[in-house]
């Protein structure tokens, strides 16, 4: 479920394979046994670890989605036909075709629109549907339809219906935590200047949209929420009220920043929010008290959970926390974490805690986000993977003769891969400057890093192929090389061969996770694809594994198609070879076309690996086992043999024999040919033509 996501009840192998976004995902779709592969496990481990770190930042998964906001179209039609617009929805009601198929009518959904600044922007609504609404809204399977009576558009940060999207969720925590009956926030908008529609103004508008400050203003509100919890509700209510007021002002500032793109004036945050007032010895006690109060609300730190957004800040906080932990152990005999959680502290303990919080580089208050972050920090996810797992890739140890020079070549490229200086320099540069790591620039860095990594792998691939190594031979020498290293990085083979590596993964069992609510009891009990299926819970839902393994006959069909493609390419190569170019330019063009066709031939030839004959016989024997009761003679079908028991050896000319000795799959060609001629009975392709189409002529 984590790797595939939820699939529909009609999921099949092809749709799963096509929708798999990564190489590792395609590998386990093709053969689920590769979940045990060391490279795949490491990829999944890193993926889960990244998801956990995102959760510490508040990026959590919940049941719901984003959909377009739609004003009640029934009311719009009433107005268009001159009727009084009443609509089909009442105050506080919404309709959603997506939710209708998942939850009962009357379910409360919390609707939110990004970016959220103030607590009043949570908008719990009642999902309603009946026969009348289903009839009129049946052609809107997506989108959230709003009534025409309430103030939802104000609660959604002054939204409208020109493409704005809204998050809707039935998450109980969100609904329970929503502040209801809050006054909405709105303000008088400045009029945008009238502009002609032309290229110059369009470019200016786009440029104003670059480098927007919406994220920075939103982060100020986040910081203020963390600061509120530093003040005692009974002893310091004024500071809490002032910070809440500033958050509401930030809602207006964010709105003005969004409208700035239209040409209005840019908003400015009040300077005293970030400016510390100096305490003068000559100040009166009242003046000092007022300045202390002001300075306590100055924004000077980031919330604790932001440590997982800024690596350098995280490093700085770890050092700070370590020093106080040593002080706590040496002074009070307990770790800092235990000291902070202690209920009845002594005066000395309280003083250390105050010092720790005052000089901490982060706001460590018990705000909601910090509490959520600590929950994930304290949780034991048990996601350790065995580092002694081995690669499950085929190594073709019986297909190649060891060559020391080739091993040295692969080793040199492996060392180049392991010590990519360009990537190391990038890592050092971006880890050093925490201020650079905004969300957008982090994505830019990742893009640059991936491009450089792809470039390095491309260079290695070109070097190995130009040296005469086939993909299968690269795997062979990777296996030989792995014995020389205590921890060989099999990512080298996956990254260098890239999508070509999928050809060497044998077709295996594929199972699609399907929500059990999407399957009827009759289908579940009768469909053989659900036979012996396991069920399990994931994110609060129950799922069952549906067997969608690629059938052997489909695999053979693909192999036949591949052979036909090879034959066609070979004919094109031969036609070009028979041409007699008149000029040197024509000669070069012809050679280039032949070279491209040869590359195409090699790619097609290694695009899939057909199953072994033994696997075919075993599968068909299992399928053709006779039932306990003898069937009527009329119902019995004649059994067909797919392949003979003895191994067939092709006795072609010496040129082909030499090629098969060097080929990745050796004499398996004979087995494939036996299958091929038995399956394709109507084909008139001769054995000699098949032999010639199996490999292009060598220079």
Question: How many H/I helices?
Answer: 28
Radius of gyration over C-alpha positions, nearest whole angstrom: 34 Å
Low-confidence parts? 432-438, 609-614, 626-699
Principal-axis shape equals globular
How would you classify the helix and strand content by structural class?
alpha/beta
Lateral arrangement of strands in the main beta sheet: 1-5-2-4-3-6
Helix content class: 40-55%
User: What is the CA-CA span between the terminal residues?
Assistant: 49 Å
* β-sheet strand percentage: 5-15%
Main beta-sheet annotation: 6 strands, mixed, barrel
* Number of β-strand runs: 11
Give the integer mean of the pLDDT values: 81
Give structural notes.
Strand 10 and strand 11 form a beta hairpin. Helix 10 packs antiparallel against helix 11 and helix 17 (404-418) runs antiparallel to helix 19. The strands form three sheets. This protein has a six-stranded mixed β-barrel. Among the domains are: 1-37 and 509-550, no CATH class; 64-177, Barwin-like endoglucanases (Beta Barrel), CATH 2.40.40; 199-309 and 350-378, no CATH class; 552-621 and 640-693, no CATH class. The chain has helices at residues 13-19, 23-30, 38-56, 73-80, 97-100, 131-136, 152-155, 172-177, 199-209, 214-228, 237-259, 285-296, 311-332, 336-341, 347-359, 368-378, 404-418, 421-432, 439-466, 471-482, 491-497, 521-526, 552-578, 584-605, 613-623, 654-662, 668-679, 687-693, and strands at residues 64-71, 93-96, 108-112, 123-127, 144-146, 165-169, 302-303, 362-363, 511-515, 535-538, 541-547. The protein has 28 helices and eleven strands. Helix content is 49%, strand content 7%. By secondary structure, it is of the alpha/beta class.
